[in-house]
Design brief:
about 450 residues, alpha/beta, Rossmann fold, eight-stranded mixed beta sheet, two-stranded parallel sheet, about 45% helix, about 10% strand, globular
């Protein structure tokens, strides 16, 4: 089977029903807005550079430019070769815009001292902020994390619905189950009082067994869950990238909007989604294993499933449970599929890595496994799949067609999964290693997951 034949070259089912009614919904990553912000930022930078004193051009500006370049280079070099707080290297374009932002702010501060006039100082500081805003805007264009201003505002003000209130009756409702050999959609008849949309609830999933101090998780309950009788639905455990948080799937990933759109097409049916923490803090890359950084594998395979069973009324069979994530979260989903197939019968690996890493193989082995290659191999999906087969596991690999780093890694993982007997699919979406891929990938993953969990027919969605 050719990889090229599996590329999504047509229109991708992106479900983003956002109203374009005002400034809050103007696109921040395409169209006129980022260009306007960029032009204003560059004009502000130009104004900051214009000082009619020779020493400004012969000494101050060169020193600030050199200092900025050296600072960015040193921080990046130390991060890549020593700190390794983030596994991924920052792209050159992102580093350039970080440098532009720092350069603009430094120029503004220097100009305040160069021309200590009361009218110049506020103007200089404002210009510096506009340069910084333009730089941040360009970084946002690269990652597509906040496609609209509403996305950013919602991220700061998001409200939670009490889980028991949202569920519409606790976890002991009468249920409608998937018939043997059929789909749940074929027997589901939505009650008249079924809500139009799903709900989002922030919850605490304690590390009772693992001791892992996780940040709050988020639970999405589809309309078909929030009624009596309720559909006995599959569940997907979603994990973030690094740096990241469980809320990223809601804000940048538009989880509720995508799930609601899918549910609207399927009589209120959609998987229950639980977005969980795997990091504890943004820069604490745990690679989803048990180590001194936290017993995250135990958390994901014992604490999280136990909490779901105790608090949610969902389908119990492994074939109805899926793990999913983007970047690091995608790698983690594949890890769970091969280390806990008795729990997770399916996985959605979006832009994941070939192997769990802190940024280098030996560094990872030394840092998290005490230098033991055998201990590392015991959790490495590609190593495990060389010696074990997984005929009952379904997997979906999705990656950006222009993702130069992770596209070849996803192809390797896909090939290894096929050799291990998994029922796997590989798809490419337009874009790189950013939310421009991960956001629509959720919709693609839902359509696929509905089929393999027998929620809907494979051809629907």
């Amino acid at each position: 089977m050719s990889f090229m034949n599996l590329r999504v070259t047509g229109e991708v089912p992106v479900r983003q029903p956002l109203a374009m009614s005002g400034p809050m919904d103007w696109p921040l990553t395409n169209g006129a807005v980022p260009w306007i912000v960029l032009v204003i930022g560059l004009l502000s930078l130009g104004w900051l550079l214009v000082v009619r004193q020779r020493s400004w051009w012969t000494l101050t500006v060169p020193l600030i430019a050199l200092g900025t370049a050296v600072a960015v280079f040193v921080v990046q070099y130390v991060e890549d070769n020593s700190w390794r707080l983030i596994a991924d290297e920052l792209p050159i374009g992102v580093l350039v815009w970080i440098g532009v932002g720092v350069f603009g702010v430094a120029l503004a501060v220097a100009r305040c001292f160069y021309i200590p006039h009361w009218r110049v100082r506020p103007a200089a500081l404002l210009a510096g902020l506009l340069v910084l805003l333009a730089a941040c805007s360009q970084v946002n264009v690269f990652y597509d994390q906040y496609p609209r201003l509403r996305t950013l505002v919602t991220a700061l003000t998001r409200e939670s619905t009490d889980l028991r209130t949202a569920s519409g009756g606790g976890k002991e409702n009468t249920t409608v189950r998937t018939p043997e050999g059929g789909t749940l959609e074929s027997v589901w008849k939505p009650p008249a009082d079924m809500p139009d949309k799903g709900s989002l609830s922030k919850v605490r999933i304690p590390g009772t067994v693992s001791g892992f101090d996780a940040r709050d998780a988020w639970v999405y309950l589809p309309p078909a869950y929030r009624t009596n009788p309720r559909a006995l639905l599959p569940v997907i455990v979603l994990m973030p990238g690094q740096p990241g948080s469980p809320q990223d799937w809601l804000d940048s990933g538009q989880l509720a909007e995508t799930m609601d759109a899918y549910a609207a097409e399927h009589h209120g049916l959609a998987p229950v989604a639980v977005s969980v923490d795997t990091l504890h803090s943004p820069l604490n890359n745990t690679i989803c294993v048990d180590s001194e950084r936290g017993k995250v594998h135990t958390y994901l395979t014992q604490d999280v499933p136990a909490w779901i069973r105790a608090n949610l009324q969902v389908a119990a069979a492994p074939g109805s449970w899926a793990a999913g994530g983007y970047s690091l979260g995608g790698t983690c989903s594949l890890q769970l599929a091969v280390t806990a197939p008795e729990l997770f019968g399916s996985f959605v690996d979006i832009s994941g890595q070939r192997e769990p890493t802190l940024g280098g193989h030996q560094h990872t082995v030394d840092e998290l496994f005490g230098g033991s290659s055998a201990a590392y191999d015991a959790i490495s999906p590609l190593k495990i799949m060389r010696t074990k087969s997984f005929p009952g596991t379904n997997g979906l690999f999705i990656v950006g067609s222009s993702d130069g780093t992770y596209r070849p890694q996803q192809r390797d993982a896909y090939a290894a999964a096929r050799k291990a007997g998994m029922n796997v699919t590989y798809k490419e979406l337009p874009g790189g290693h950013s939310w421009a891929v991960w956001r629509p990938a959720l919709g693609v993953g839902l359509a696929w997951l509905g089929g393999v969990t027998h929620l809907t027919s494979p051809s629907s969605g």
